[in-house]
Amino acid sequence: MEVLFGLALRQTTGFVESLLWLVGLDWTVPDFSTLSCRQKNLAINIPYRGLKGPLHLLIPSHGSKTNHCRAVDSTGIKVEGEGAWHASKHGGPKPQVWRRIDLGIDEQTLEIRAAEITGSHIGDAPVPPYLLGQIPIGEEVGSVTAVGAYDTRKCHDAIAGRGAHAVIPPRKNAKPWQPVTGGAAARNEILRASK
Q: Where is the Transposase DDE domain (predicted)?
């Protein structure tokens, strides 16, 4: 219930109590502290509803100004700890710490299929191989769509290694690569077609 409706734990207990009262059941709902202790060890596995056909992985881009569907994304989250509280209470410089969350989204179902949390010092390009590594090996990946920031050898090699088609626009100053890998050959074909 907590995950389904996006409620806090105390709200969830009240919601369940109301539901039980509405259906006329005289059951007791565990209190907040009991539920809090139990949920620490609760493992929830939400199964993926498989598709017929290959997976088309999207890597959405946070800053893109286009309206097309985006697939692999990274977004930043601010991390505040004792330093931020101390600075707000007593003044002084506030250290800002960021973490990045990179997502791989199924283009058809819009379910998050892969996620990677990195520090703010890691760029976009190194992450897609790790996202693809989270997709089971037996599952066919048809395509990976991403923005030009992912136009790197490692990304194209990881995509080609899964037998997928890369839908990544070349950078403005793109030059052909030496076709020593499948990813480089596929990327050179994209570059040739885009000029």
A: 2-65
DSSP helix, strand, coil percent of the chain (3-state; round to 5): 35, 20, 45
Instruction: Name the residue among 143, 157, 195, 145 with its Cα closest to residue 173.
Output: 195
Based on the fold, state whether residues 102 and 10 are members of the same structural domain: no
124 lies in the same domain as 62: yes
Q: Clarify whether residues 37 and 4 are in a common domain.
A: yes
Q: What is the DSSP string of 37-70?
A: HHHHT----------SS-EEEEB--TT----S--
The 3-state DSSP class for residue 189 equals: helix
Q: E strands along 70-140, which residues?
A: 72-79, 97-106, 112-119
Cα of 90 vs its chain's centroid, Å: 36
Q: Is 34 left (phi over 0), alpha (psi -120 to 50) or beta?
A: alpha
pTM over 0.85: no
Q: Which of 59, 73, 75, 67 is nearest to 146 (CA)?
A: 59
Q: Which residues pair with 126 in a beta bridge?
A: none
Domain enclosing residue 32, as ranges: 1-44
What is the per-residue pLDDT across 39-80, written as a single tens digit (0 to 9) for each? 788 776 666 666 666 777 767 655 444 333 334 555 666 665
